[in-house]
Amino acid sequence: MTDRSPRDRSRPTEDVDTDPDAEAVAVGDLRVAVDVEATVDGDRLAVRSVDGRIDVSADSLRTLGRLGSLREAVPDRIGQSIDRVPIGVHVGDVEVGRVDPDVPAGPLARALGVAPVRLDLGGVTAAVLRGRW
User: Fold this and answer.
1) What is the 8-class DSSP label of residue 100?
2) Is the dihedral of CA 54, 118, 128, 67 positive or negative?
3) E runs forming strands in the chain
């Protein structure tokens, strides 16, 4: 992805103390490199930028439910542009949802209040069958 930022004199990402494996992802006029692991009520949560998208991975569907709105959890400037970034949502190694620019969430996601995430029913079912609910 190309940084279209008008900030010619901004620090390059190489000067920022980040994980060398984190790849920068364009979020509006920003370039964001994320490699964070945390725990939410004892469950693992990881957020990483890779291959031009952001991946959110949790140990269980319950952990994802505790997050609330991704837009509310990030700084305002990023939150205003978050709909322009592909986001994969995983439970373990199974993709359970996805946010893609210009692809609206389905009726089930809107009814459950998880829009703009598009749910992958096969992935959600696999996570539940593996006991990761």
Assistant:
1) B
2) positive
3) 25-27, 30-32, 35-40, 43-50, 53-58, 87-91, 94-99, 118-119
Whether 88 and 53 have beta carbons less than 8 Å apart is answered as: yes
- From CA 116, how far away is CA 127, in angstroms rounded? 20
- What residue has token string 């990881």? 46
CB contact at 8 A, 13 and 34: no
Print burial letters for 62-94: b (CB count within 10 Å at least 16), e (below 16): ebbeeeeebeeebeeebeebbeebebbbbbbeb
List CB contacts of 102: < 8 A, sequence separation 6 or more.
none
Q: What is the pLDDT along the chain (133 residues), one digit of tens a residue?
A: 333 333 333 333 343 344 556 778 777 677 878 888 888 888 888 988 888 888 889 999 988 888 766 666 666 666 667 677 888 999 988 999 998 888 888 888 888 888 888 999 999 999 999 988 8
Reply yes or no: is the peptide bond before residue 116 cis, omega within 30 of 0: yes
Please state the pTM of the whole predicted model. 0.70
